[in-house]
Design brief:
This protein is α+β, with helices and mostly antiparallel strands. It has 13 helices and 5 strands. It folds into 2 domains: about 5-95, 2-Layer Sandwich (Cytochrome Bc1 Complex, Chain A, domain 1), CATH 3.30.830; about 120-305, Metalloenzyme, LuxS/M16 peptidase-like (Cytochrome Bc1 Complex, Chain A, domain 1, 2-Layer Sandwich). A 5-stranded mixed β-sheet has the order 1-5-2-4-3, sandwiched between helices.
């Protein structure tokens, strides 16, 4: 297992994958954003590693990792489809029955510990500025996670979202702009991603921040909330038509939270969210000292700061 020649071959493949990611301004902006959000922590590191870390890995480290993490205590098997329970259990036991037990490894917590806004720009001679603006969001356990999901839909998911209609359609400052949310075990992120013409960067950032301030100050309308709820429920129901998605849905919940929410459970939580909840959560998230902005393109930090990098 893990012959030296096989390890060397795969090492070169991964290094080329890292090179490809570094060559992509959009992916590079994502890496910089993670470093800003979780400085010095595991969540702030790219999952592929660095050329230096990959070069330093050899067979002994790989075997140690395999024996430490690939153990029955740290594995979950999720199966969905037209299967018989007894047969599935029999097959799993056949292939895992002699698996040696180990100790479930601990993992390092990742928190932002943020006290002021963070900004990082990497200069590149590109046609566009690829930009990520975001804040720390709620964890997968937080009661506001569904409220934040709906907030993202209203703000930047779809062609009728606020960011798309205001920043792209009305102001013409960007071709692509959208928001999305990620929930982890002890933290999360709320992010806005955009591709901007370099000369319009400061103006576009100011326009996005103004939209965040507007949400905090004036909230949303009942029709906006109802539309986002129907979108959220529709997406969920549609995804459940795919067996792979179903297996991932239940498996991820079990391994991350230790409990299962059904589709009905989730739709009930979504329906509970109110207009006031959206405005409250927006006020908690969108604060100047919590802002993180990473950008890759032919600009410098002063080009963004000049446009006033703060919520008003």
């Amino acid at each position: 297992l893990f012959r030296a020649e096989d390890v060397d071959k795969e090492r070169q493949v991964i290094i080329e994958e890292i090179n490809m990611s570094l060559d992509s301004p959009q992916q590079r902006a994502g890496m910089l954003f993670d470093e800003l959000m979780w400085p010095g922590g595991p969540m702030g590191r790219d999952v592929a590693g660095t050329k230096e870390s990959v070069t330093a890995i050899h067979r002994p480290q790989m075997l140690k990792y395999l024996n430490g993490y690939y153990t029955p205590e740290n594995i979950l098997i999720s199966i969905a489809g037209d299967v018989e329970d007894d047969r599935v259990i029999s097959i799993v036991e056949r292939y895992t029955g002699d698996w040696k037990k180990g100790e479930k490894p601990e993992y390092l917590l990742s928190r932002t510990n943020q006290e002021k806004s963070r900004l990082r720009v990497e200069y590149r001679d590109t046609e566009q500025v690829n930009l990520l603006l975001g804040v720390e969001g709620p964890s997968i356990f937080h009661p506001d996670r569904f409220t934040v999901d709906l907030l993202s839909m209203i703000l930047g998911e779809g062609m009728s979202s606020r960011l798309f209609t205001e920043i792209r359609e009305k102001m013409g400052l960007t071709y692509d702009i959208h928001s999305y949310v990620e929930h982890f075990r002890e933290s999360g992120t709320f992010m806005i991603q955009a591709g901007i013409e370099p000369g319009q960067t400061a103006k576009a950032v100011r326009a996005v921040l103004d939209q965040l301030s507007l949400l905090v100050r004036d909230g949303i309308s009942a029709p906006e909330l109802n539309k986002s709820k129907e979108m959220a429920k529709g997406r969920l129901l549609l995804s459940m038509e795919n067996s792979r998605n179903v297996a991932g849905w239940y498996g991820a919940q079990e391994i991350l939270t230790g409990r299962i929410m059904t589709v009905d459970d989730v739709t009930q939580e979504v329906d509970k969210v109110t207009v006031d909840d959206i405005q409250r959560v927006a006020g908690e998230l969108f604060v100047t000292d919590k802002l993180n902005l990473a950008a890759v393109g032919p600009i410098k930090e002063k080009d963004i700061v000049a446009g006033s990098f703060k919520l008003e």
